[in-house]
């Protein structure tokens, strides 16, 4: 069954603890935490202090999506703060293999994200080293954007390589995932669907998560 990772980017930050408990009780599989630095992407969001603060609130894995330049500087900090998975962007690091090893040496699962405009070939050589591939289905920086259809082919290609070479990373998709787009992502091979506005913009988060699952199964 597909996993759902609500992105707290679309939560009400004035009551973040309650917002996390809401999706935890509502059937979420991961809590997706979008970290933006105002350089790699044109937005600034949250840092390690928030990760540390929310860690005791939920037993769900904290899926930390770093949209920051020089991620190596902050990987140990986010690991200590309680991240379960740390995903870095291929575009944000020159020495991707070294960055992946740094994440793993901090006892955290390692993910690599790709912007819509970055070919999947850019990460082919490290696929055997990682726990998660994150295919961005919008340009990173903001919640509530529209899904970019051509990214489906990228999910398919990554899934094909996983089968062909016997890798066991998860494939996560992030951006514009809702009841209309979820099924084609899952059919293409996605295991984890990040959903920010599709979950948090609804009053009943349990129902929102269920509706995405049902859209996949239909
Ligand atoms: O990484 C992200 C943006 O850069 C977010 O995780 C993503 O946008 C989720 O929001 P939505 O589901 O509303 O598109
Ligand atoms: Fe994200």
TrEMBL record:
Record carries keyword Transferase: no
Record note on cofactor: Binds 1 divalent metal cation per subunit.
EC number: 5.1.3.1
GO biological process: one example: pentose catabolic process
Catalysed transformations (reactions): D-ribulose 5-phosphate = D-xylulose 5-phosphate
Pathway the protein contributes to: Carbohydrate degradation
Catalytic residue positions: 34 (proton acceptor), 174 (proton donor)
Record keywords: Carbohydrate metabolism, Cobalt, Isomerase, Manganese, Metal-binding, Zinc
GO CC terms, sorted: cytoplasm
Cofactor entry: Co(2+); Fe(2+); a divalent metal cation; Zn(2+)
Annotated substrate binding sites: 7, 65, 141-144, 174-176, 196-197
Transmembrane segments: none
GO MF annotation, one: metal ion binding
Class of enzymatic activity (EC top level): isomerase
Residues holding a divalent metal cation: 32, 34, 65, 174
PROSITE patterns assigned to the protein according to its UniProt record, in alphabetical order: RIBUL_P_3_EPIMER_1, RIBUL_P_3_EPIMER_2
Similarity field: Belongs to the ribulose-phosphate 3-epimerase family.
Function according to Swiss-Prot or TrEMBL: Catalyzes the reversible epimerization of D-ribulose 5-phosphate to D-xylulose 5-phosphate.
The protein's name: Ribulose-phosphate 3-epimerase
Lineage: Bacteria, Bacillati, Bacillota, Bacilli, Bacillales
Gene this protein is translated from: rpe
């Amino acid at each position: 069954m597909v996993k759902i990772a609500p992105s707290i980017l679309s939560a009400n930050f004035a009551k973040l603890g309650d917002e996390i408990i809401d999706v935890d009780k509502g059937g979420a599989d991961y809590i997706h935490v979008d970290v933006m630095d105002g350089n790699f992407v044109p937005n600034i969001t949250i840092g390690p202090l928030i990760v540390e603060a929310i860690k005791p609130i939920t037993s769900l894995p904290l899926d930390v999506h770093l949209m920051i330049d020089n991620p190596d500087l902050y990987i140990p900090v986010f690991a200590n703060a309680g991240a379960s998975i740390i995903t870095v962007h291929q575009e944000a690091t020159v020495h991707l293999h070294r960055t992946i090893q740094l994440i793993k040496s901090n006892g955290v699962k390692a993910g690599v994200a790709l912007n819509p405009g970055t070919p999947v070939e850019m990460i082919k050589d490290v696929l055997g080293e990682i726990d998660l591939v994150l295919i961005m289905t919008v340009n990173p920086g903001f919640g509530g954007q529209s899904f970019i259809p051509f990214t489906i082919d990228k999910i398919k290609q990554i899934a094909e390589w996983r089968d062909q070479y016997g890798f066991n990373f998860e494939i996560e998709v992030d951006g514009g995932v809702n009841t209309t787009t979820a099924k084609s992502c899952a059919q293409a091979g996605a295991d984890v669907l990040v959903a920010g506005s599709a979950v948090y913009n609804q009053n009943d988060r349990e129902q929102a998560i269920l509706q995405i699952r049902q859209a996949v199964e239909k």
